[in-house]
Design goal:
By secondary structure, the chain is an alpha+beta fold. The chain has 11 helices and 21 strands. α6 (314-329) crosses α7 (342-355) and α9 crosses α10. The structure holds zinc ion. The site of zinc ion (ZN) has 8 residues, from loops.
């Protein structure tokens, strides 16, 4: 964000000091700032190049900045709008420019006393203007405003303003006198999009001198019906976006952009301290689909395939494509969690391409490790069926027991519930994993468990 200039630092406290020759001058004229924008970055005139009257602004590290007037631009400098500088520059001098602009407007707007029309002069002890007639004292004005990331079912509400900034934004607005910030959030979201919100969580703040603001970012969740009724006067568009559909702003300056980026980079599950979606809220249901990969070469040969990697057959690919069609009817699938084995991965990729959703690989969804039964013909190995009924016994020669398999599958489902509350998740994995998953949701006798069968690309739905 624009204020993130570490290791540099802006020192904003007022000091009654005079400029030195190397002091930097911030000269505004008709809301434009005198600067030189070159490949080396942003530059401003020095006091040595002028004899203007100055007002101390602030320091950045050991450089002092002063407000001055210089209507005629010296050689190499020209007047830029703040928007031009925002689009073309970055770093500590851009932050200095925004902050100087905020102070410049305050000084320019307060030459006379609002009470008695007397002349204002600078206080000698603090950043304040004092009326020479009646003594009325005023302090710099900062407008509080909120930036709101509204989320619902794994998506975030992205807007574009009807006027002004042309890129993607979030709901935003000024706090009015007599309301709390949380009330501003609820009111602005309602006015701009017709949505009710809940679980308002503070994120971060940002000084935004360009609009004389202090911006406070909040995430919250849409409550009830999440269909949007957009205010056409304020907005040009307001749409729900999945994480991978979010188009960021061209620059990294704004709090808005950071909030959109956070939602995108966390694939829609914000860190718990900012997330408005409560995973312990029992009214928020997570839908989980389980499927088994398409037919493989080892399935076709009727060989035992656990952790042995093998490819899908042409028929297996067709099955995956058919499943993708079926899943497309379930538009609400927001993410695919997938076993790392090739047959599951390929199946997941075919579905993900159709649904335009991300794939998260989770090794806990890999198939049961069958030890030395791997790649044996199923029909010639009757002891394999018997071994699968011994819950606590590891598969021959270094394989896994059923309890070990179930332990990792349960832990994966626990994490899906925690990470994707209120969302719909498709797990693409294996027959043995699907069988273990079934027992997470439903009681099964040993016999029922042994006879449970999941066909290639069959789909089962659970709700928790
Ligand atoms: Zn006065």
């Amino acid at each position: 964000m624009i204020q993130d200039i570490a290791p540099s630092r802006l020192y904003n406290s007022w000091q009654n000091k005079a400029p030195r020759p190397e002091s930097i001058l911030m000269c505004f004229h008709e809301s434009r700032l005198l600067a030189a924008v070159t490949e080396d970055g942003l530059r401003f005139p020095k006091y040595a190049e002028s004899s203007a009257d100055t007002t101390f602004l602030f320091s950045v590290d050991d450089e002092d900045f002063f407000l001055a007037e210089m209507p005629e631009a010296p050689a190499g400098f020209q007047y830029y709008t703040m928007r031009e500088l925002r689009d073309r520059c970055e770093g500590k001098y851009l932050y200095a420019a925004f902050t100087a602009y905020h102070l410049h407007l305050w000084y320019a707007d307060n030459r006379y006393c609002g009470r008695c029309r007397g002349d204002m002069q600078h206080d000698t002890a603090e950043r304040a203007l004092v009326c020479t007639e009646c003594g009325h004292k005023i302090y710099p004005r900062i407008n509080p405003a909120v930036i709101v990331g509204v989320v619902s079912r794994g998506r975030i509400l992205i807007t574009r303003y009807r006027r002004g900034y042309a890129h993607n934004a979030l709901v935003a607005g000024f706090t009015e006198i007599g309301e709390t910030l949380e009330e501003t959030v609820a009111r602005e979201v309602m006015e701009e999009t017709g949505l009710h919100v809940r679980n308002i969580r503070y994120y971060k703040s940002q000084p935004w001198g360009m609009a004389q603001d202090i911006l406070m970012g909040f995430f919250c969740e849409a409550e009830g019906d999440d269909s949007i009724r957009m205010d056409d006067n304020e907005l040009k568009s307001a749409v729900w976006c999945k994480p991978d559909e979010i188009e960021l702003q061209p620059q990294q300056h704004s709090l808005t952009n950071e909030m959109m980026k956070l939602f995108r980079d966390t694939n829609g599950h914000l860190p718990p301290e900012y997330s408005p979606v409560k995973s312990d809220d029992t009214s928020v249901k997570t839908h989980i689909y389980f499927t088994r990969h398409g037919e493989t070469t080892m399935n076709a040969a009727d060989h035992i395939s656990g952790i042995t990697d093998c490819e899908l057959t042409a028929h297996g690919i067709e099955q995956a494509e058919q499943l993708a069609e079926i899943c497309a009817a379930h538009r609400e699938i927001g993410v695919i969690v997938c076993s790392p084995l090739k047959r599951a991965r390929k199946t997941a990729e075919i579905i993900a391409e159709k649904l335009h959703v991300p794939i998260v690989t989770d090794a806990r969804l890999r198939e049961w490790d069958y030890g030395s039964y791997e790649d044996q013909p199923r029909s010639g190995t009757p002891e394999f069926q018997a071994a699968k009924r011994e819950f606590g016994v590891r598969m021959k020669d270094g394989g896994e027991s059923l309890l070990q398999l179930t332990h990792r599958v349960y832990s994966c489902i626990d994490d899906i519930r925690k990470n994707y509350p209120g969302q719909t998740v498709l797990c693409v994995c294996h027959g043995g994993v699907c069988r273990a998953a079934e027992t997470y949701f439903h009681d099964m006798t040993t016999d029922a468990f042994s006879h449970f069968f999941m066909g290639n690309c069959e789909l089962r739905q659970y709700e928790i």
